[in-house]
Specification:
The protein folds into two domains: 6-44 and 289-398, Aspartate Aminotransferase, domain 1 (Alpha-Beta Complex), CATH 3.90.1150; 47-284, Aspartate Aminotransferase, domain 2. 41% of the residues lie in helices and 13% in strands. It contains 14 helices and 13 strands. Strands 2-9-8-7-6-3-4-5 form an eight-stranded mixed beta sheet, with helices on both faces. Strands 10-13-12 form a three-stranded antiparallel beta sheet. Strands 1-11 form a two-stranded parallel sheet. Bound molecules: pyridoxal-5'-phosphate. The site of pyridoxal-5'-phosphate (PLP) has 13 residues, from loops.
């Protein structure tokens, strides 16, 4: 009988897509659902970026490109990264691909070997693809909790305890999905101090929410002393320019660039050619749309956090970045006799017509950290208000 490999079976999924499919199913059955599930801006890709892709098609830029990406895009990414991350990288260090996501798996494949007990440290809660790719590639996932009592930062002693001679990679993600936490320079310097003595330890800095930091300065760990060489900066045009479906992202690291280039050759061949021209215009053209989107998201953030905090049993911290709110619903679950956040999310979907994700969708939650939900507020204010009103009514009917 044919069998599926352990690798194939070990691949996890991203529950946002699973819940999204359920939302679509309910909607097509005539149900009215307010969705806070999907992590993508509700704003159209700016017109000048779309025009660049149309022009590229008219100019015949429709064939394969070098796997690393067209040279003008690699140059533009290097300039952009130097400008926004305050580092000094060359275009040769940049490899373009189909979004930021493939580079998570590529990095794990490039720095760990299969079944030799190489360990990878990753945040929980965190983007589910980290654990999925670590497992599927035969490395050992080492979850590092973001602690509620430390404002959803790692406990630095816990980090130090988890690093050993088998640790090959630590993944950090700031601004963070799902908590919206942003690591400041002081904290990143402390992380770097712990990492520095371990010579064979890489850092994957997953930065697709770079542009969505609301009050403070964005700092990449790559800009901290001695960190650039061992850090893979991963970013994309997906969120910053509202281009999730265009599938253009990139990774930056001198030593790994040739490996990434071969990985792209072995998988997608290259990112879509016309879309590389669109990304080039996005990164090097007018940046007003980014500023506008950031301002819009900041007022939505304030609105949804205030609204959530006004509902009995819900407490929500003000996230400093990304476009996610991460309310603590422990008290609500306890008072309403609901087992946990997964059950609460299910009931919100089916009884209140509101779709959200639960903490369990971002790695196995620790009991001591309580129950949380994730709301993506990348949706219009009107929808936020309608969703909040539905939750308020639902909660009132329970308490
Ligand atoms: C933390 C994180 N990393 C990476 C990605 C992948 O983004 P993309 O592949 O669209 O660039 C996402 C998308 O939701 C994300 O939340």
């Amino acid at each position: 009988m044919t069998q599926i490999s352990k690798r194939g079976a070990a691949l996890g999924t991203e529950n946002a897509f699973v819940v999204l499919a359920e939302v679509e199913r309910l909607r097509s059955a005539g149900k009215d659902i307010v969705s806070f599930c999907i992590g993508q801006p509700d704003i159209s890709t700016p017109a000048h970026i779309c025009e660049a892709a149309i022009q590229a098609i008219k100019d015949g830029h429709t064939g394969y490109t070098p796997s690393a990406g067209i040279q003008p895009l690699r140059n533009a990414v290097a300039n952009y990264i130097n400008r926004t991350r305050k580092v000094d990288v060359d275009a040769d260090d940049v490899i373009c691909g189909c979004g930021a996501k493939p580079f998570i798996g590529y990095t794990i494949q490039a720095v760990t070997d299969h079944n030799v007990k190489n360990e990878v440290i990753y945040p929980v809660p965190g983007f589910p693809i980290y654990e999925s790719q670590i497992r599927a590639n035969g490395a050992i996932p080492v979850a590092l909790p973001l602690r509620k009592n430390l404002d959803f930062h790692f406990d630095l002693e816990e980090l130090a305890d988890r690093i050993n001679s088998k640790t090959r990679l630590i993944i950090i993600n700031s601004p963070h999905n799902p908590t919206g936490v942003v690591f400041d320079r002081n904290y990143l310097e402390k992380l770097a101090e712990i990492i520095a003595p371990w010579e064979n330890l890489w850092v994957l800095s997953d930065e697709p929410y770079y542009a969505f930091v609301y009050e403070q300065e964005f700092v990449s760990i790559a800009s901290i002393k001695d960190m650039l060489e061992r850090t893979v900066i991963v970013d994309s045009v997906s969120k910053t320019y509202s281009m999730t479906g265009w599938r253009v992202g990139y990774a930056v690291n001198k030593k790994l660039a040739p490996v990434f280039s071969r990985m792209v050759t072995n998988t997608d061949s290259c990112a879509p050619h016309p879309n590389q021209y669109a990304a080039l215009t996005a990164l090097s053209g007018n940046q007003d749309s980014v500023e506008n989107m950031r301002n819009k998201f900041r007022s939505r953030r304030d609105h949804i956090v205030d609204g959530l905090n006004s509902i009995p049993g819900i407490q929500c911290r003000l996230p400093e970045g990304a476009f996610y709110a991460w309310p603590d619903v422990t008290e609500l679950c306890e008072k309403a006799g609901i087992k946990d956040s997964v059950k609460l999310a299910e009931r919100l979907l089916h009884e209140a017509g509101v779709a959200v994700l639960a903490d369990a969708h971002f790695g196995s939650p620790l009991k001591v950290e309580g129950q949380h939900l994730r709301f993506s507020y990348a949706c219009p204010l009107k929808q936020i208000d309608l969703g909040l009103q539905r939750i308020r009514n639902f909660v009132q009917s329970l308490l």
